[in-house]
Design goal:
By secondary structure, the chain is mainly β. Helix content is 10%, strand content 27%. The longest helix has 14 residues.
């Protein structure tokens, strides 16, 4: 246990070097350790000996800088409402065994956060940490602190509403007749910090979410840093990973700074079948600076990276099979081979980015559904393609499926089809030529 906490503490020191004068009194609390175990927990003491049963049951107890350790199990939140909202800076660490002495978050000890689609359950983000509205006793906004989410699997599949309950196409409207919620139009892990707050999302998996923005969304404000590292985002709408800014000034020294490293973002869908927005593996707001390194960004319905004006350094990223572009800057669409020549917001030191076909080891059942989908306005999509490695047979080949001579004949009602945790995880266990996420391990 102490070794695991030590690893976390090293990271606190690495990204949490917020100067003391920028951490307000409210966020200077030392914090305590909480323990949560679906299988062995009860009550609200939240100690290692008597853990709570669900994070949702202890939300009202949390104070700034508390550390929550989550054991293996499936978590639905309090009353199975399917969403946990926290309004102070905390650290959430998942993937423990029931004794809290071992961690294996993508293997033997998965901490899976999900919910149900019962009518009038919450449709807000599954993990929603927002500290930007907290205030000191004098009325000024609280600043500083560190927020970390590490080793959590978010699966929104059970929270979605699917057409005719076939798990092939989501629906965004509720059905009062059948007492079903709409599919939540929110991300899996959404974090909004305060000024001078450092934020990290590491070793997490987010899948089956249907937001208009980020499945993993991190919004950093003035003087803060964001780290998004070794995560798997798979089968979501909107943007697989979304780096956001809360700074609106013109002083470049105050711009939020991001490190986006060793992530895999695959199969990111547009907002809906005929939408012209969403569908990017990775997206950036303007007014931020980011280093983007060793990521695999593949099979975005629209593209690999959508940059709305951030200053980016792109190093050794892999682009694979994106729909209409590998990189989009405002309205300019580019293949990976053209980025260094044509991009206005990419630094000259960027290098080593490439496009190639890759084999993705997802389950054959889901692969056949995805490869057999029919897109509306397909001729428009095909006419806009500017990147290589696209097309129906190329797509089938990346799953190892047999090639087809004619058009596929599956039902066109396929949009964000459900993928299970067991089907999705193999896609994130090994990087391609050192690019993308890998299985998180601890001694």
């Amino acid at each position: 246990m102490k070794k695991i906490q030590a690893v976390a503490m090293v990271f606190f020191c690495t990204i949490g070097a917020t100067l003391a004068q920028h951490t307000s009194t409210n966020f200077s609390n030392g914090g305590r350790d909480w323990y949560v175990s679906k299988n062995t927990g009860s009550g609200q003491l939240g100690t290692q000996e008597r853990p709570a049963k669900d994070l949702g049951n202890i939300l009202h107890h949390l104070k700034p800088n508390d550390r929550i350790h989550v054991a293996e199990g499936v978590y639905m939140s309090k009353g199975s409402r399917g969403s946990d909202e926290i309004n102070v800076p905390v650290t959430i660490i998942g993937g423990y065994d029931t004794t809290f002495s071992k961690r294996d978050p993508w293997g033997a000890h998965k901490s899976i956060f999900t919910g149900t689609n019962e009518y009038k359950k919450l449709t807000t983000p599954r993990i929603y940490i927002r500290t930007d509205q907290q205030r000191e006793s004098n009325g000024q906004k609280s600043t500083g602190g560190v927020i970390i989410v590490d080793g959590i699997i978010v699966d929104n599949g059970p929270r979605n509403r699917y057409h005719q309950d076939k798990n092939l196409a989501i629906r965004r409207k509720a059905s009062p007749k059948t007492l079903q919620n709409p599919s939540p139009e929110s991300g899996g892990i959404v974090i909004v910090g305060s000024n001078f707050t450092n934020i990290a999302v590491m070793n997490c998996v987010v899948m089956n979410t249907a937001p208009s923005e980020g499945a993993i969304s991190v919004r950093v404000f003035q003087g803060g840093k964001g780290v998004v590292q070794n995560n798997l985002s798979i089968n979501n709408t909107g943007y697989g990973i979304h780096a956001r800014t809360g700074y609106v000034g013109t002083d470049e020294t105050k711009l939020p700074v991001f490190e986006i490293k060793n992530n895999t973002s695959l199969f990111t869908w547009k907002h809906d079948a005929i939408a012209s927005y969403g569908g990017d593996a990775l997206a950036f707001d303007q007014n931020l600076v980011a280093t983007v390194q060793n990521n695999t960004l593949g099979y975005g319905h629209m593209g690999g990276i959508y940059n709305k004006g951030a200053k980016l350094t792109l190093i050794n990223n892999l682009f694979a099979g994106n729909g209409t572009y590998d990189y989009k800057e405002i309205n300019d669409k580019m293949a990976v081979t053209d980025i260094l020549d044509e991009a206005m917001h990419v630094t000259p030191t960027s290098d080593g980015n490439q496009g190639m076909l890759i084999k993705i080891p997802v389950a054959e059942r889901w692969a056949k559904i995805y490869a057999g989908r029919q897109e509306l306005s397909r001729e428009v999509v095909d006419a806009a393609v500017t990147v290589p490695n696209t097309g129906a047979n190329q797509l089938r080949s990346i799953f190892g499926l047999n090639l087809q001579a004619g058009e596929v004949a599956m039902d066109a009602e396929i949009f964000l089809p459900l993928i299970t945790v067991e089907e999705a995880l193999p896609a994130g266990q090994y990087p391609w030529d050192g690019k993308g996420c890998t299985i998180p391990k601890w001694n």
